[in-house]
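Give me the 3D structure for Beta-lactamase-related domain-containing protein.
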Amino acid sequence: MHLYTCLLLILCSFYISKTAGDNVIRQKVKEFIQKGLDCHNNPALAISVVKDGEIVYAEGFGLKNISDPSSIVTNRTLFGIASLSKAFAATLLMKILDANKKFSLSSKVSDILGKDDLFYGKLRSQYATLEDLLAHRLGVPSNNNIRLDSSLTRENLVGRLKYLKPVGGFRTSFYYNNLMYGLITYITERLGGRKWEDMVMTELFQPLGMTASDFVTTVDWEKVDFAVGYLDKDGQLYEVPNEFSRFLEYFPC
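Predicted structure for Beta-lactamase-related domain-containing protein (253 residues):
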């Protein structure tokens, strides 16, 4: 955490202090990041900074593939963004709900999907809402091993959730759960009438000009400039650092 705090302070000084000289500050940033990569044994890193709605700094560091010394990371290199995908899932859901008008965050999942046995026990099955899913307050632990099943899909995930026994109270505990966001993407597909990836493309990527961003489920590995993942997860987005900054336009400070 100390590494990222220091990095934030250095980057802020890049824009606040013009007297030090941009080139000097840029070099300090590069040196600091390289020390961080070496210290934590990280193969690569990409940074993008937005100021007043403009991308003012976007740079890549390290290697896309540690076995290839020439595979230099740039600000156009694709990176898997893992759980940052949840921001896209939540944003897309809100856009679809706004267009749909029939449902809201307080709508019960059972009403949307027409199922009364979605979760373990009647309480969650009958009363769990979209807000409960987004806020990780069902009391259901992660059960991440399910995601190792190569046959797992959004559709068949729905039938498995009822076997996941809660360990915390409904709406009185917090248990981070990736599977519930998988359910969110399935619900979004049902409400929007299209594949989740297609809707992210048309509702988020295209309006923001994020033309190079893609999905692990659809990306053409032979054509893209991507950083090799050393721990990969199905379904995550692949983002270009300076394109990801455009997504911040949805969340002005």
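The first strand starts at residue 44 and ends at 51. Let me know if you want a second pass.
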